[in-house]
Amino acid sequence: MNVTPTIGNRIEALDILRGFALLGIFIANMLTFHSPYFYIDPHSYFSTPGDVASYKLINLFVEASFYPIFAMMFGYGLNMQYEKAMANGTSYVPMMARRLAILMGFGLIHALFIWSGDILFTYALMGFIMLAVVRVPKKWLLWIALIVYLLPTALFIGVMYALTVLNPNSLMEGFVDIQQIELAITAYAHGSYGEALVFRITEWLFIGLTNSFLSVFMVLPLIMLGAAFSKWKLFERTAELKGKIAIVGIITLAAGISIKSWPYIDGYDYYNLLIQQLIGGPILAIGYACVIILLCTLPIFRTIFRPISKAGRMSLTTYLMQSIIATLLFYGYGFGLYGKVDIETGTMIAVGIFAIQVIFAELWLMKFRMGPFEWLWRKGTYGKNMPKKEEKQQAL
């Protein structure tokens, strides 16, 4: 069997892909860090030529097309840990339940005290469901994932289309919330930490927590898909499967970009935006993943982008630090840049912060085996019985 290059017992391509996903997620999240993005119609809110052009690029090529990669990598890692436990004859559920409970704790702290757009709580919640689902054979897992994702998505889009046809203005009041925009600006741009905290908790309870439960239909299938890919040993068999991966990559890149371009052709109706985000986003994500996986078979690519793999290896630390740094930059209790930068500047800031994180990860891992938050996570999972040697755990 031809296997993808590894470092130690880690799959390097998996870390590189996760690193690129973290960059894409940060660029998309940056919109919510410096503007009241949760409550606006971005196609009308961003009105300057520079912002319109910048948002279009992010909307087409970044937004909703990198978090699916990260979700699939989470599922890939969960199955790797399951198979390792089965091979070693150790108990998988108790260990993983502790691991997911700690991740849920990280997510709650992150959502309530740092940034309401947290995804860790959702991953942990879906992970508990995966404790049972990960045992499903790979072919069944793939079909279950597709059905759980596509049927509710199609139904939701269909309902929104029907509502739009019956009453074209029925969705706009919920789409743009002027009062919440003003409250977000007041809390985040001008408020103290306490004032921002109160608004953030309310925001997470109404948006974040609701989305976490809806993620059974949006995020869980992506995690299941990643677990199915792990059972097929996609990364381990890249050289063997590269022809098939290339075909899938070409098809999904073309289809993903076409679908994500649809609102710019047919109009910004809510159902078109849902098609763009919920259908086009994950399809393009698969295309991106295929390209990066294939490029990782080239030694020169792995050499050049190996530092990004270090940020991917420290994904929990990288993700949390992005929120800490960004909120300190933009919120009123920090440098107060909220609402004061355009999209292009915000994107450049995201890329700059990520570049610094890559350097930090490179230096940190020269001395330590894992990132600081990864160490806390691992220590909480194993306690005094924490393994001395690094294990093949790449769940997040």
From TrEMBL:
InterPro entries: Bact_Transport_Assoc (IPR052529), DUF418 (IPR007349). Residues 231-384 form the DUF418 domain. The chain crosses the membrane at residues 20-40, 60-80, 100-133, 140-163, 204-229, 241-259, 279-304, 316-334, 346-365. It comes from the Bacteria. Coiled coil: none annotated. Keywords: Membrane, Transmembrane, Transmembrane helix. This is DUF418 domain-containing protein.
